[in-house]
Design a protein that fits this description.
Blueprint lengths: L4 H12 L3 H5 L3 H12 L17 E3 L9 E3 L5 E2 L14 H14 L5 H8 L3 H16 L13 E9 L8 H7 L11 E8 L4 E6 L6 H7 L5 E5 L12 E5 L6 E2 L2 E2 L1 H17 L8 H13 L5 H14 L7 H6 L4
Parallel strand pairs: 4-7, 7-8
Antiparallel strand pairs: 1-2, 2-3, 4-5, 5-6, 9-10
Helix pairs in contact: 1-11, 4-6, 4-11, 5-6, 6-10, 6-11, 9-10
Bound molecules: zinc ion.
Zinc ion binds next to loops.
């Protein structure tokens, strides 16, 4: 990231204006050029072989114009999306860029159904592309330790899922074909959030089911703030705890859980926009997305685009959605 700062800086201007609208107005050549500059920012936008990391590659475009490269060192062919989250299916590059723009700028407060119409993608394609973005950003939370650079953190829990509002039944019927969507039981999202630092969410059956995870992911010596829920009582044995009884006050004697509550208010707002999906196996992804958006709320738009792209393009494949793509070819 630091080494490639110069290129990223140049890119960030374009990234800042990477809206669904600007992407849809791009020609094929423009979309290809921008994708190359983003993907291979560390090599001035020139191709790098995903098989052997050689920069010695040449253009061997398909007769239909589809961009392909051949590595002079290992002699293998690759495309702009080879070895990334977007590999293994064939869509216009514009659609990937639109998905990124959609995820960073547009997804909040606008229905994915309306967007899929705007983009000329099927609803499922827009849905899967957005989930790939969520999967990419969840990479940043792997192995995250809370309290390693902040002395104080907050824990809190809220329940999500488990009921479907009648007006959404039509959409719910469509989604039930997804095996992953068939069990929409109520789950607790538990968040651990450093005061002024990083956020780590998890999904559990209950608050007490999260205790082992909290002990594992919070550095010893961290002061933990929590509300009056008895589930947190056993944490006193391991951490210095500051408890706040919300029946009495929101902040008292230095104890408060405002950071955690700000996180949940974002997740609830997300729930409004995606209520028919924010349950079951997708709940963790939405919880991670809300954490990422909270942690990056002051990050410039262009930089957010760059980070999502770096994460999405650095990933080999998408375990959640590999089979899904094969069953549902983009319409
Ligand atoms: Zn190679």
């Amino acid at each position: 990231m630091v080494i490639a700062m110069a290129q990223h800086f140049l890119l960030s201007r374009q990234a800042k204006t990477l809206t669904v609208g600007t992407v849809l107005r791009m020609s094929d050549a423009e979309a290809e050029g921008l994708f190359k500059r983003i993907r291979w920012a560390d090599n001035n936008g020139e191709p790098v072989c995903p098989h052997c990391a050689s920069t010695n590659a040449y253009d061997c475009r398909r007769p239909n114009g589809a961009p392909r490269y051949r590595c002079k060192d290992c002699n293998k062919d690759f495309s702009i999306t080879s070895g990334t989250l977007f590999a293994s299916h064939k869509m216009p590059l514009r659609s990937y860029l639109a998905a990124i723009a959609l995820f960073i700028n547009e997804v909040k407060g606008k229905s994915m159904l309306a967007l899929s119409r705007d983009l000329g993608l099927s609803y499922k394609t827009a849905f899967v592309l957005c989930h790939k973005m969520r999967e990419a950003i969840s990479e940043e939370m792997k192995g995250r330790q809370i309290g390693d650079d902040r002395p104080e953190a907050e824990i809190d829990a809220a329940y999500f899922g488990g009921h479907v509002r009648p007006k959404n039944l039509a959409e719910e019927r469509i989604d039930r074909r997804l095996k992953q969507n068939q069990s929409g039981k109520r789950k607790a999202v538990v968040v651990i959030r450093e005061k002024g630092g990083e956020t780590l969410p998890g999904v559990f059956k209950s608050e007490s089911a999260a205790l082992a995870w909290i002990k594992r992911r919070v550095e010893k010596g961290t002061v933990l703030h929590a509300d009056e829920s008895p589930a947190w009582n056993t944490l006193h044995a391991r951490f210095e705890m500051k408890r706040i009884d919300h029946q009495v006050a929101y902040s008292l004697d230095g104890a408060c859980t405002n950071w955690a509550e700000s996180y949940f208010s974002r997740l609830r707002r997300g729930e409004m926009g995606h209520h028919h999906h924010i349950a079951g196996p997708y709940l963790l992804r939405y919880a991670q997305e809300a954490a990422w958006r909270e942690d990056n709320r002051r990050t410039a738009n262009g930089e957010q685009v760059q980070r999502v792209v770096d994460l999405a393009l650095g990933k080999r494949s998408s375990p959640d959605f590999v089979g899904y793509w094969q069953r549902h070819v983009a319409k």
